[in-house]
Amino acid sequence: MLTEERVRDQLRNVIDPEIGMDLVELGLIYDIGIHDEGRHVDVTFSLTSPMCPVGDLIQEQVETETLAIEGVDTVNAQLSFDPMWNPDMMSPAAKLFFGR
């Protein structure tokens, strides 16, 4: 059975090219919903800035990586700025990396 943790692990392959760290560690994955016995996944994610020039590329990568999970047929990757991302949302490892 597909779990949120499995999806998060897969999304570690999506790297913010401007920062060089994955979306999970950066705290940019806001929500994951698994439906239809794992065949459909909703991913709510954010960007470090609304002006991020690679937002479309990141959304495409979120979709591609989620669809790469066995059994997933469809994905809805939804960009959200609610709440607005801030560095406090990063994982402890990411904070340490950036000296926070």
Q: How many helices? A: 4
Strand order of the largest sheet: 3-4-5
CATH class: Alpha Beta
Quickly give the structural class: alpha+beta
SSE order, as H and E?
A: HEEHEEHEH
Gap between N and C termini, in Å?
37 Å
Briefly note the CATH topology name. GMP Synthetase, Chain A, domain 3
For the largest beta-sheet, the strand count, sense and barrel status come to: 3 strands, mixed
The CATH superfamily label reads Fe-S cluster assembly (FSCA)
Whole-number average pLDDT? Answer: 95
Structure summary, number of beta strands: 5
Total number of domains = 1
Helix share, percent: 25-40%
List keywords for this structure.
GMP Synthetase, Chain A, domain 3, 4 helices, 3-stranded mixed sheet, single chain, two-stranded antiparallel ribbon, about 100 residues, alpha+beta
Write structural notes for this entry.
This protein has 100 residues and is an alpha+beta fold. The chain has a single domain (4-84), classed as Fe-S cluster assembly (FSCA) (GMP Synthetase, Chain A, domain 3), CATH 3.30.300. It is 31% helix and 23% strand. The chain has 4 helices and 5 strands; from the N terminus they run αββαββαβα. The chain has helices at 4-11, 23-26, 55-67, 92-97; strands spanning 15-16, 21-22, 29-35, 40-45, 74-79. The strands form 2 sheets. Strands 3-4-5 form a 3-stranded mixed β-sheet. A hairpin with a 4-residue loop joins strand 1 (15-16) and strand 2 (21-22). The longest helix has 13 residues, at 55-67. The radius of gyration is 13 Å and the shape is globular. It starts with a helix and ends with a helix. The mean pLDDT is 95.
